[in-house]
Write a structure and sequence with these properties.
The protein is an alpha/beta fold. It is built from 17 helices and 15 strands. A four-stranded parallel sheet has the order 6-5-8-11, sandwiched between helices. The longest helix has 22 residues. It starts with 8 loop residues before the first strand and ends in a 14-residue tail after the last helix. Bound molecules: iron/sulfur cluster (2 copies). The site of one iron/sulfur cluster has 14 residues, from helix 1.
């Protein structure tokens, strides 16, 4: 089964100048065209990361009569008519307009989840400094937008650690299908399916935290709230344009219902808040709802490069050794764009790990897997340069220096948020303990397999890519 999903990333031929700044940041050479002429995207090769959308600086002059009107372009792009920012040549399909209409429907039970980094980047859209942490204002704004339940993808990150950590321990003990790659970045998964199907067996079978929360929203939480799963509108706010693609994959359904019905980006959430006239800066802090809004510090660091690895080691260490991990802050795993490697002593095991921050760096590791020389047990791959902090749906910054400063501030803020949590390990999150006790049973058990794990499929086209 190969999912068939419409393109999400587009280049507006009327606006594109052919500067090819986008081609310079595309990690998979998916942008085609001569300099000085409008560019096209090879949708097969494109991993929907949105880095071209972040970089493109060409926009419509409102007074240019030869162009399609701004109102029409907004409509074509799925954006709200109230959007004031320029319309750039490279853009992603929007869902704010569709969501605004769905939120007004009294018959739907509207549930939202927010990725770890939304709380450290949303405030930038309202003029606050880079990396300002605003989980409480975000929860309050989502309730004012008419959501019935405000949940958190961080909870799904904690579930991912329980499942993926157990899977890793099993594979290391049996020596099978190593190295194991993380599977929570959908752009990396699409790249593996397209350009490296020989490694698909090495990917963790875990769905991403977003899809896990979606599956639990339509089962566990529906049961707790006494709501029919079919009446639920499950929405996710993500820093990532590829999450729109992931949510639409055929296999991402629970008993025939979509796990996540709609995905909007950080920028689209800011547009909805402005559209409704909400005074974001002066909102009082509100908590997330229980139980899918309770998270550990480990869940929150998924937003930065190396975060999945660090969270997994915090839990994996304790599951294997039955002792407390001596140091919770694993600085050797933290960093910027590029590849980092380390050996971690876990009891008698020397666990060799690698972190790939930026999809363009993954090719050497894929070659090592092909020729059987890859020395690592566990590899985290994030397609965007510094993980989700630099995602394609994040607030747009046109200057390279601004971008670097923003990524740094967002990462620091995420790590600060982690160190301020009372619970910093996924397996110690009381809501996670209760989820397994009352509903899932055990990690990798029957219910987990049904709801939280998936299969990946080759998208390779013979002769086109190796
Ligand atoms: S899409 Fe934007 S960045 Fe890419 S070539 Fe066109 S104008 Fe330049
Ligand atoms: S979305 Fe990412 S992969 Fe696709 S064309 Fe843009 S930069 Fe390249």
């Amino acid at each position: 089964m190969t999912p068939n999903i419409d393109p999400i990333i587009h280049i507006d031929e009327e606006l594109c100048t052919g500067c090819r700044r986008c081609a310079a940041v595309c990690p998979v050479d998916a942008i085609i065209g001569e300099a000085g002429t409008p560019q096209k995207i090879d949708a097969h090769r494109c991993v929907v990361c949105g880095q071209c959308v972040q970089t493109c600086a060409a926009y419509a002059a409102e007074s240019e009569p030869a162009l399609t009107s701004r109102a029409e372009k907004l409509r074509q792009r799925g954006q709200l008519s109230s959007v004031r920012e320029p319309l750039f040549a490279a853009y992603s399909t929007g869902h704010a307009l569709e969501l605004k209409e769905a939120l007004a429907d009294p018959k739907r039970y509207k549930v939202v989840q927010c990725a770890p980094v939304i709380r450290v980047s949303l405030a930038e859209e309202f003029g606050l400094p880079f990396g300002t942490l605003t989980p409480g204002k975000m929860a309050a704004a989502l309730r004012l937008l008419n959501f019935d339940r405000v949940y958190d993808t961080n909870f799904g990150a904690d579930v991912t650690i329980m499942e993926e950590g157990s899977e890793l321990i099993g594979r290391v003990m049996s020596g099978e299908r190593l190295p194991m790659f993380t599977s929570c970045c959908p752009a990396w998964v699409k790249h593996a399916e397209t350009a490296a199907p020989h490694v698909l067996d090495h990917l963790s079978s875990c769905k991403s935290p977003m899809q896990m929360v979606g599956a639990l929203v339509k089962t566990y939480s529906a049961e707790l709230d006494g709501v029919a799963p079919a009446d639920i509108l499950s929405v996710a706010v993500m820093p990532c344009t590829c999450k729109k693609f992931e949510a639409g994959r055929d296999e991402m359904n629970v008993d025939g219902l979509r796990e996540v019905d709609m995905v909007i980006t950080t920028r689209e959430l800011a547009q909805l808040i402005k559209d409704k006239g909400i005074d974001f800066m002066n909102l009082p802090d509100e908590p997330f709802d229980s139980p899918l809004g309770k998270y550990s510090g480990a869940g929150t660091i998924f937003g930065a490069t190396g975060g999945v690895m660090e969270a997994a080691i915090r839990t994996g260490y304790e599951l294997v050794t039955h002792e407390s991990i001596p140091n919770l802050q694993l600085d050797f795993i933290r960093g910027d764009e590029g590849i980092r490697t380390a050996t971690v002593q876990i009891g008698d095991l020397e666990l060799k790990v690698a972190i790939v921050a930026g999809l363009k760096y993954v090719s050497s590791i894929l070659e090592q897997v092909s020729d059987g020389t890859c020395p690592y047990h566990f590899i985290e791959v994030m397609a965007c340069p510094e993980g989700c902090v630099s995602g394609g749906g994040q607030p747009k910054l046109l200057l390279e220096t601004q971008r670097k400063a923003a990524y740094q501030a967002r990462k620091s803020s995420i790590y600060r948020h982690d160190s301020n949590q009372k619970v910093r390990k996924s397996h110690e999150n009381p809501a996670i303990i209760k989820l397994y006790k009352d509903f899932l049973g055990e990690p990798l058990g029957h219910t987990s397999h049904h709801l939280l794990h998936t299969k990946f499929f080759s998208r390779s086209v013979k002769g086109e890519l190796k």
